[in-house]
Design brief:
Number of strands: 0
CATH class of the largest domain: Alpha Beta
Radius of gyration: 22 Å
Number of helices: 7
CATH architecture of the largest domain: 3-Layer(aba) Sandwich
Length: 188
């Protein structure tokens, strides 16, 4: 697995298409995002030489390569386990989670987020073509789900004069406990 991870990270990460075509994003150089690899600015291209040298593979999950490796492994499982080759139903569950990590790191409107989805679309295309070839187009059922939606970065919304902010969980918890103590006479 380390060899595969290294192979992908050695590619770095640049946009799949010309950056000027990323029209569903705000500027690549903006104040609303942070890079998970701690580089000075979260802008393309990304170089992962430091992570490779340190054998630090965690950055994969916050790059499109995390999804691609997941797709590669799923295809190998499909083939090597001979899924769909007999009369017994098989189930293969795959979680493409890099979109989540990228979205949390860079934000909903980031070029990085748009790019990771464009690349995921290509990964899904390859997976579906493999399913068609290995199992047969009429011989499988596919379910697509998501664990949650996403919202714009609160600071971005505020700059657009849209009311937004973040919950202060500790403050809410403190105030709730105080309310319960004073109004319901329940000791804490």
């Amino acid at each position: 697995m380390q060899k595969i991870s290294k192979t992908y990270l050695e590619k770095g990460w640049n946009t799949l298409y010309g950056i000027e075509t990323y029209t569903n994003s705000i500027a690549d150089d903006n104040k609303y995002e942070k890079a998970p690899n701690k580089k000075e600015k979260p802008v393309f291209p990304y170089d992962y030489k430091t992570q490779i040298a340190a054998n630090s593979w965690g950055i994969l999950k916050a790059s499109p390569w995390g999804n691609t490796i997941t797709k590669d492994i799923a295809i190998e499982c499909l083939k090597n386990e001979q899924l769909g080759k007999d009369d017994i139903s098989d189930m293969l569950c795959i979680s493409f989670s890099s979109t989540d990590y990228v979205g949390h790191s860079y934000g909903l409107r980031a070029v990085e987020t748009e790019d990771v989805y464009l690349r995921l679309d290509k990964d899904l295309e390859e997976l579906l073509k493999t399913l068609d070839a290995e199992v047969g187009q009429e011989n499988y059922v596919l379910f697509l789900t998501a664990d949650h939606g996403a919202a714009d970065v609160a600071a971005y919304l505020k700059d657009l004069k849209i009311p937004a902010g973040y919950l202060k969980e500790k403050l809410i918890e403190k105030e709730l406990k105080s309310f319960v103590r004073s109004n319901l006479a329940i000791p804490y």
